[in-house]
From TrEMBL:
Source species, domain of life: Eukaryota
Domain Transcription factor IIIC putative zinc-finger: 601-629
Molecular function terms from GO: histone acetyltransferase activity
Phylogenetic lineage: Eukaryota, Fungi, Dikarya, Basidiomycota, Agaricomycotina
Descriptive protein name: Transcription factor IIIC putative zinc-finger domain-containing protein
Record-linked InterPro entries: GTF3C4, TFIIIC_Znf
Organism expressing this protein natively: Rhizopogon vesiculosus
GO cellular component: transcription factor TFIIIC complex
GO biological process, one term: transcription initiation at RNA polymerase III promoter
Length: 639
């Protein structure tokens, strides 16, 4: 069995849970440990020349390439947050108040929200309001439960001139018990500008409930270069899902509501939702006897849903795996077919075999405590972290924290065919990690590369041709700069066809890197060049239309930039409509300004000899001394 990654993480994990290991919207795996947060970025899809920080694998088995990771560690500040002994001299306050603080929970914001990120219990994704281009608007909500039984809903306000601020949206009082878990369901769009989500929560006494959140989008009356919107949210507490039974919830997650208690897995589905069943289903966990420490009452430390097999995979702290079949029809532990090897027993055995392979010399007395588990590709490849040094429950000898070491493993549990791998990718880029991972198999890549290039070469229709911008008549003011920034951001990153082109270019770039056949590598380069040209034309059209909209307020210092855009839009290979728009812009500018012939030449200086290089081709240039400057490598362009 192949192992893509096996790397040691010198740390202690004090809170094993299904969120100990989680993916961010930017495609980074976050590991929550006692004293730090480790941010792991997988190597596939990263486009810069620096080698990954970590690249460990037991070997190149079955043509698999080792999976590299870039690691960033954020340590917990060791300062005293509160001096409890100064308030009370009781023994409990003095001893417990002096204990080391530890990281308990981490949540990741949606991408492109802030460079700082945040911590909390659960941060929702950005809802899709069904508007194209996607407006530059943050509608995500950060839900934070507290010991007073309330959930606070916060929102990050992104400001132009600062890192932003956090605003309080709503507080919902739900119980007189501690809110222990919070989990968002995916947003569902019910119409343009209208979407809803369910927030599940649990309390210390075992209650499980729901809060329904409805968000609507309203357009502002003031119209600038781009339409602006505001959001409003309505919060509605639903009926209880589970009454208090004094058994604490150990995991709470979706796609259907999955909440676990010691020895039990509870599934809940909303009536009239996608699964054909509704209400609550309860399944009894069975002990997978792989070691002396195996126990079905161990807390759940990972949950993963495999759509194409319709199975839910759970990892327990004792190192075992459990598989629920037929999740969307009628959940059961039994596979639908007698020859199906995707069972709790087989996955637990495979996990134990991988543990033995990475940590030689283990016996049945040793337990591989899984503290967190996630899926790498939403299919057969899982990522999990466990205590590397063999743990024996009967061994009570003290071990200093510095001697603790965990192991991060990435490995497939069953084989996938090419027909399953090929349609597995989606956007944005971190969802392409499934395809990027499986293409690293040499035999699979050779078989799939021609078909992938055929798919990539099918350029989607250009949606930027439908952009209509009103003329700007309010003068060159600070408001114009703000409007330009918002409008350019919306159109450069809000059109689905541009996103699709960028994703296709990422895959084409990876194929070019992996290809060993010179002829096939040339084909990869040709496909990438075509995609790059399509992206350039979309970007140029967006810029030209913005320049035409603000042409009345263009000043003399802006002329070189405007003419550069015109020249690039008139180069051979540009669409005729783009060339016509650029020529119209040039005519408008020429009427208003006396153009210096030295400016229209648009000469650059050669980086090697500082001779003038005329701009004749957007992809290459040659100076009088023979220095040739081609298009930058694809990784530089993608960065």
């Amino acid at each position: 069995m192949a192992i893509y990654t096996s790397l040691a993480v010198p740390t202690v994990i004090s809170h094993p849970s299904e969120r100990c290991l989680q993916w961010s919207d930017d495609g980074q795996a976050c590991i929550t440990t006692k004293a730090a947060v480790h941010i792991m970025t997988p190597d596939p899809g990263i486009n810069f020349s620096t080698p990954p920080d970590i690249k460990a694998s037991p070997g190149d088995e079955q043509g698999e390439r080792p999976l590299g990771w870039f690691r960033t560690m954020i340590e917990l500040a060791r300062g005293h947050t509160h001096l409890w002994p100064s308030m009370c001299q009781d023994w409990g306050a003095v001893t417990l108040g002096s204990l080391d603080l530890s990281v308990r929970a981490v949540t990741c914001s949606p991408n492109n929200l802030t460079s700082r990120g945040s911590q909390g219990l659960s941060w929702s994704t950005q809802p899709d309001y069904g508007i194209t281009p996607t407006p530059v608007l943050d509608s995500s909500l950060l839900a934070m439960g507290n010991r007073a039984g309330s959930i606070l809903f916060l929102r990050f306000n992104r400001n132009i001139d600062s890192e932003g601020s956090v605003s309080h949206i709503h507080t919902e009082l739900l119980s007189d018990q501690w809110i222990t878990h919070v989990s968002w369901s995916p947003w569902v769009t019910h119409g343009i500008g209208y979407c809803e989500s369910l927030l599940a929560f649990s309390t210390a006494k075992g209650n499980v409930g729901l809060v329904k959140i409805v968000q609507t989008l309203q357009s502002n009356s003031n119209v600038g270069l781009v339409q602006e919107y505001t959001t409003s949210a309505v919060f509605d507490v639903q009926g209880p899902i589970c009454e208090a039974d004094k058994r604490g919830v150990t995991a709470l997650t979706w796609p259907v509501l999955v909440y676990t208690k010691p020895g039990l897995v509870h599934l809940w589905s909303w009536p009239s939702s996608e699964p054909t069943w509704s209400g609550t289903r309860t399944l009894l966990l069975q002990t997978q006897n792989v070691c002396t420490g195996s126990s079905a009452i161990s807390p759940v430390s990972g949950v993963s849903y495999v759509l194409h097999r319709d199975v839910l995979i759970l990892a327990l702290f004792d190192g075992s795996f459990h598989v629920i079949h037929n999740l969307s029809v009628e959940p059961t532990w039994s596979p639908l077919y007698a020859d199906d090897t995707l069972t709790s027993t087989e996955l637990s055995r495979a996990s134990r075999a991988l543990f033995a392979k990475v940590t030689p010399g283990i016996s049945r007395m040793d337990v591989n405590r899984i503290s967190g588990m996630i899926s790498y590709d939403s299919q057969s490849t899982l990522v999990w972290i466990y205590e590397q040094v063999a743990l024996r429950p009967a061994d009570f000898s003290y071990k200093h924290e510095a001697k603790h070491e965990c192991m991060l493993i990435t490995a497939p549990f069953w084989q996938l065919n090419d027909e399953t791998v090929l349609p597995s990718g989606s956007a944005p880029v971190h969802h392409l990690r499934a395809l990027m991972l499986h293409l690293r198999n040499n035999a699979r890549f050779t078989a799939l590369c021609p078909r992938i290039l055929e798919i990539l070469s099918q350029v989607p229709p250009d949606q930027t041709t439908s952009i209509v911008l009103p003329p700007w008549t309010q003068g060159s003011t600070d408001d114009l700069r703000l409007q330009l920034r918002k409008s350019l951001t919306t159109h450069l990153f809000g059109w689905p066809n541009l996103l699709s082109l960028r994703m296709r270019l990422s895959i084409a770039d990876m194929c070019w890197k992996l290809c060993k056949d010179p002829e096939m590598q040339v084909q990869c380069g040709q496909v990438a060049q075509g995609l790059l040209a399509a992206i350039s034309h979309c970007v140029l059209r967006i810029q030209v239309r913005h320049l035409r909209a603000i042409a009345p307020v263009v000043s003399a210092p802006d002329i070189p930039f405007v003419l550069r855009e015109v020249v690039q839009s008139l180069l051979p290979g540009s669409p005729q409509d783009l060339a016509d728009e650029a020529q119209s812009l040039s005519d408008t500018i020429t009427i208003s300004f006396a153009i210096d012939p030295a400016v229209t030449g648009l000469h650059e200086l050669c980086p090697a000899c500082h001779a003038e290089v005329p701009l004749q081709d957007i992809t290459s240039a040659t100076c009088p001394n023979g220095h040739t400057w081609g298009m930058p490598p694809l990784p530089i362009l993608l960065s």
